[in-house]
Amino acid sequence: MTKAVEEVWDVVVVGCGYAGAVAAIAAHDAGATVLVLEKMPQPGGISICSAGGIRVAKDADAAFKYLSATNAGTTPDEVLKTLAEGMTSVAGFVEELAAAEGTEIVRSSASGNYPFPGTETFGFVTVEDGPDSGDMLDKSSVRGGEDGLALFSLLYAATRRREIKIEVNTRATRLRTDATGKVIGLDADRHGHAAHFRTNGGVVLACGGFEADYAMQKQYWQGITARSAAFAGNTGDGIRMCQDVGADLWHMWHYHGSYGLRHTDPEYPFAIRMKRFPDWLPGEQFPDDVKMPYILVDQDGNRFMNEYDPYLQDTGARPFAFFDPQRQAFPRIPAWFIADENGRKRHPFGKPTYHQAGMSFSWSSDNLCEVDLGILQRADDIESLSRIIDIPTEQLEHTIARWNDGCAASSDDDFARPAQSMMPISEPPYYVAQVWPLVNNTQGGPVHDERQRVLNPYGEPVSGLYAAGELGSAFGYLYISGGNIAECFIGGRIAGKEAGAQVKGK
Ligand SMILES: Cc1cc2nc3c(=O)[nH]c(=O)nc-3n(C[C@H](O)[C@H](O)[C@H](O)COP(=O)(O)OP(=O)(O)OC[C@H]3O[C@@H](n4cnc5c(N)ncnc54)[C@H](O)[C@@H]3O)c2cc1C
What we know:
By secondary structure, the protein is of the alpha+beta class. The protein has 2 domains: 7-254 and 443-501, FAD/NAD(P)-binding domain (3-Layer(bba) Sandwich); 256-439, Succinate dehydrogenase/fumarate reductase flavoprotein, catalytic domain (Flavocytochrome C3, Chain A, domain 1), CATH 3.90.700.10. The protein is 27% helix and 22% strand. The strands form 5 sheets. Strands 1, 2, 7, 8, 9, 10, 21 and 22 form an 8-stranded mixed sheet that branches. Strands 11, 13, 14, 15, 16, 18 and 19 form a 7-stranded mixed sheet that branches. It has a 3-stranded antiparallel sheet with strand order 3-5-4. The longest helix has 24 residues, at 77-100. The structure holds flavin-adenine dinucleotide.
């Protein structure tokens, strides 16, 4: 039996982070009627607690060369060329939105994260002063970068200026197709009631990845799962809906992730990000004044990685995935963080980020509240430290002595950590905590072409269906900082325009 259609819209956008908001604005500006569905109590997604930096480029050819090298053949040239070209013009689009809301963009130069050809063409655009969203956004539920909040406030103001309807607490559940397989609408759960939406132009899925879906992580990642660093709303819904209508998937293994700590309160659902140190470019001078005051050791008490990779937020999780077939175990999950009293006094070890109603956790400036909470454990000497980790004291003494010798010689002969970042661990008491891989955002999802049309495994578009943002991101191997947000704006805009343009008679 056919279900009754409740509402007809030109374009329905699923998800209201940066990508969904931009797609909605673009579809509206193309003359379409637009509805945005957001499953959480307020819009913003991960976007609202991000650092808010949009990657831009001066030259599209140079940006394409760089993106090609970092994607290692995992993404077709046409998709990367469109992204590269978009990076040269996206600043103008954001500037226009900002001007309409009485604010301005800020431009800065910053190379890519690796010394690939084209790296020097890049920069960032941010919006430092977002328009006042009054009490429309509950900012107390957001802990993250000021610029991320400002950028979302700008988009939110732009949707309100256009009177675009955003329905919160409304979860898209299934796409609807006609007899030819064309997507013609979707079903949703609206405030606990079934709702059906029919579309004239198309559906844009901008509903993020699977940061908070452990079942999906288990299927696609090497035996490990990782807690989201920020947000519980992205549970792979868009991926399942796309699979249901025949979409191909890509980049499912690839996630933007590092390592972090966990709260002792079982109600705290997120990983806690470490203090953010500056990224560094291999081959260039490392800053002299940046010290990372800790090491990581595995469950045997051995260091196993360079704790300070060039772009730690992106690749820091990868070394944790090592499986030891002799013991049939993952000896680095969890691993252990170790610092001493000098490190404790230097700066806060953790920097929580989240977008979640009712949450209020900040890291103390001297790390002592976290000792009281049990997130960090204190040990008066190495022997007590080794008891906490449950390894022989001599093993830990050996690891720490080798580290301290490396600090004295200004050289990490084991993992080539930048010498300037090294700090001895010698002043008791010591601080120790379990450390786990964490996911900032996933990159996997439906394959799309340069028009953001979702493709089936034969490379044919699934008619009426578009994807934008981190859902099916173009980044398939190495990521460029600010790339996901750039993609939200560039791909979101293309998807919204494309879907809007499909409406007959407009
Ligand atoms: C702390 C942190 C800092 C970051 N900083 C940067 C940065 O500076 N630069 C950068 O490029 N990237 C950064 N990232 C990554 C980047 O923020 C995200 O990849 C990007 O914002 C994702 O935007 P999106 O619109 O695709 O998804 P989101 O912003 O997550 O929006 C998706 C929305 O879809 C909703 N949704 C999900 N399922 C459904 C459903 N079934 N029905 C309805 N709604 C649904 C969700 O609730 C959510 O609101 C950062 C990530 C983190 C965690």
